[in-house]
Amino acid sequence: ITSAVAFDILPLKLHPFSQSTPTGLDCVGWKRRISSPVITDGALDKTALTDDVGSEEDLYEDFRSSNHRYGHPGGGGEQLAINELISDGSVVYAEALWDHVTMDDQELGFKAGDVIEVMDATNKEWWWGRILDSEGWFPASFVRLRVNQDEPMEDYPLKLEGGKEDDSSSGTRRFGMGQTTKDQMRTNVINEIISTERDYIKHLKDICEGYIKQCRKRADMFTEEQLKTIFGNIEDIYRCQKKFVKALEKKFNKDHPHLSEVGSCFLEYQTEFQIYSEYCNNHPNACMELSRLTKVNKYVYFFEACRLLQKMIDISLDGFLLTPVQKICKYPLQLAELLKYTNPQHRDFKDVEAALNAMKNVARLINERKRRLENIDKIAQWQSLIEDWEGEDVLVRSSELIYSGELTKISHPQAKSQQRMFFLFDHQLVCCKKDLLRRDILYYKSRINMDDMEILDVEDGKDKDFNINVKNAFKLHCRDTEEVHLFCAKKPEQKQRWLKAFENERRQVQLDQETGFSITEVQKKQAMLNASKQHHTGKPKAVTRPYYDFLMRQKHPTLPTTLPQQQVFMLAEPKRKPSNFWQNISRLTPFRK
C-alpha cells in the first residue's frame, strides 16, 4: 500500500498537545480560517474571556463544530504546495535542524545540517524522505525547507561547511526554465531572513498578548510560578527580537535585496541572543506543566479561547512555544546559506562570515548550558547516596563536578594522615570516607570553600609546615585565615591531574560569571526532590520521559511504532543511559581515575 493511500485510509490520532510544529511555521502568507466566533479588527473583546468557564466551553464547542482540529498544528498551505511540487515531478529539499537518531529501520536518521530529499509530505507530522540510498520516515518539525530549491544538489553541501565557493561555481547557472545569478540566490536568502523575522515577531506578540496577558487576568487558574514555568523568559526574547528586526530593516535594501548588509546585525546582537539558553533549558519543563494542566478541560478551553481571540493561526500553545527553540537553530543555517551566495568582494562578506561563527558559538553555549542543567540531576542523585550528609546541598553553590579521586589528607597538629575520597565541584571540594566493608558506600566528612583558597605546589621532601616528608603533594592555603590543607597523591601523574583540575575549577567559575550562568532555585529544588524520592524508594533512578517524546506525540498508525531512541534538543549529543553510582561520577568528570 502506498503512503499516500495509507494516509487517506487511516485517520490520524488526535492528542491534546503535540510538540511537532510544522516546518513552515515561520513562513509568511498563511491564511487562517475562523468561522466562529467572528471577531472584528482592533482591540480584543474584553468581555470574551469572563470568569465563567462555561463561556470558554461554548467558544471551544463553536470552534470544534466548525471542523477545525485543535491540537493538530499546521495551516496546510505550505504542505499543499510541497505535495503539488512533488506530484509535478519537482525535487524538494529540506535541511535538518536537529539530529534524528533512530533504531527503527522504517525511520530516516540524519544529523543537523544534512540535506534530505522530501518524497512525500502528505502527513503533517511525518514525511517520507531520502538521503543517498536510504529512505524512511522523519519528523517534519526537525527540518527547514531549502530556500533555493532549484540549486543543483551536488553543490549544496558546500554551504553546510560555512565555507567559500570557488569562483568557477559562482557564475551564472541554469535553473529550471531560465537562468539566475548568484545575486538572485542571495536575494532569496535575504528575503527569507527578513520575512521569517517579521513573522516570528508576530508569533511572539501573539504569545505575549494573546496568552500571557490573558493568563495573568486569571489568578484563580494560574500562579506566577506556573506562568514562569510555561512561558519562561519569552517576554524578554520578544523585546530583544523587536530591536533585532528593526536593525535588520535598516540594513535591508528593498530595491536591491542582494546588496543588503545584514551580517553586522547578528554580530551586534550575538550576546543578547544568549537569553535563548534560559528559554531552551526551561522548555521541557513548560511541556510537562502544559501536559499536566490540559488534563483538566477548563484549561484546554481557556487556551483555545485565547488563541481564537488573538486571531492566531491553527497551532496549539505548545506549538507556538516551540518556535524560539527552532528559531535559534535556524540562524546558523540561514547565515551559512547567505555566506554561500555572498561574493568575497561584497561589503557584507566579512560580517556574514563572522556572524556565522558567532551564531554557532551561541548554539554551542546553549548546548553547554543544557549539559550543565542535565548534570544537576546527577549531582543531586550523588548527594542522596552519601551517608551522614551535613550542611547545605551541593547545588546551593555548585553545578559542575570538575574532578574526583582518592588523596591522602594530612592534618595538624600531629600530622595525622587519612585516606579520603575528594570531589571537586565549582566553588567547593567535598571530602568523603569510604565504608570499611562496602567500599561503594561513602560518608560525608567535610568540605572546603575553593573561593578562598590558593593552590600551592609542594616539592618532594620534608615539608616545613607539617615537619614530615611528603611525595606528590600540594597544599590548599586559605588567604583569610591562613589555614593550610596538605594533600598527597599516590603517583606524580595523579598530582598533575589534580593541579590541572584546580585550574579548570577557577576557569569554570570565571566563565560562569562572564556568561551569567546560574541555576534557578526552582531547578535546584526540583533536582533534590527527584533525587530524594528515588532514594527513599530504593529503586534505580528513573529518567524523566525524554523531551523527544513530546516532539513525537502525533504519529500515524502506519508509521513505525517505536519511538526514536535519542532525546533531540538543539544540537546536543544523545543522552547516556542511567548508570550506577560510580559510573555517574566518572561521566561527570573530564578525567579518568
From TrEMBL:
Residues 156-167 have a biased composition (Basic and acidic residues). It comes from the Eukaryota. Residues 89-148 form the SH3 domain. Residues 156-178 are annotated as: Disordered. Residues 185-369 form the DH domain. InterPro entries: DBL_dom_sf (IPR035899), DH_dom (IPR000219), GDS_CDC24_CS (IPR001331), PH-like_dom_sf (IPR011993), PH_domain (IPR001849), SH3-like_dom_sf (IPR036028), SH3_domain (IPR001452), SOS1_NGEF_PH (IPR055251). Residues 400-507 form the PH domain. One of its GO terms (biological process) is intracellular signal transduction. One of its GO terms (molecular function) is guanyl-nucleotide exchange factor activity. Coiled coil: none annotated. It is found in: Cytoplasm. Keywords: Cytoplasm, Guanine-nucleotide releasing factor, SH3 domain. Pfam families: RhoGEF (PF00621), SH3_1 (PF00018), SOS1_NGEF_PH (PF22697). One of its GO terms (cellular component) is cytoplasm. Gene3D superfamilies: Dbl homology (DH) domain, Pleckstrin-homology domain (PH domain)/Phosphotyrosine-binding domain (PTB), SH3 Domains. PROSITE patterns: DH_1, DH_2, PH_DOMAIN, SH3. This is ARHG4 factor. It comes from Himantopus himantopus. The gene is Arhgef4.
